[in-house]
Design goal:
136 residues, alpha/beta, Rossmann fold, five-stranded parallel beta sheet, 5 helices, 5 strands, 18% strand
């Protein structure tokens, strides 16, 4: 099996979708993920994301909670409701770090909760945790 010995990141090739209405957050996440060798799909809101999820079939989805039109909870619930994507890990992104927000995220099927602003390390650790689980 190929491992890190070839100088590749263990995240190399992971397809990661980032859904956030903030261009700054999308760009930051994209830069961190591209540096780690991930393939990145960006979406501005839930509606944009739902169209792209079917086309790109990401290995992992990061979704902002507070978005116009279709919020992160609704987006996560719709992704998880689709049998094709039920197993796709979804990580909620939020500037709120309350117990209620985390619980609500779990109720709609999210796999993890990351508080913004996130660090490169915390973002990549989340990708590693969920994409390794997919490969196992």
């Amino acid at each position: 099996m190929a491992t890190e010995t070839q100088g590749r990141s263990p995240l190399h090739g992971a397809k990661v979708m980032v859904i956030d209405d903030s261009n700054t957050i999308r760009r930051s996440a994209e830069i961190f993920l591209l540096q780690a060798g991930c393939t990145v799909i960006l979406a501005e809101d839930g509606f944009d994301a739902l169209a792209k999820v079917a086309d790109h079939q990401p290995d992992l989805v990061f979704v902002d909670i507070m978005m116009p039109r279709l919020d992160g909870y609704q987006t996560c619930a719709l992704i998880k409701r689709n049998p094709r994507f039920r197993a796709t890990p979804v990580v909620m992104l939020s500037s709120k770090d309350g117990l209620f927000d985390r619980a609500r995220g779990r109720m709609v099927g999210s796999d993890q909760y990351l508080t913004k602003p996130f660090t490169k390390d915390s973002l990549l650790k989340a990708v590693a945790a969920h994409t390794r689980a997919e490969a196992a």
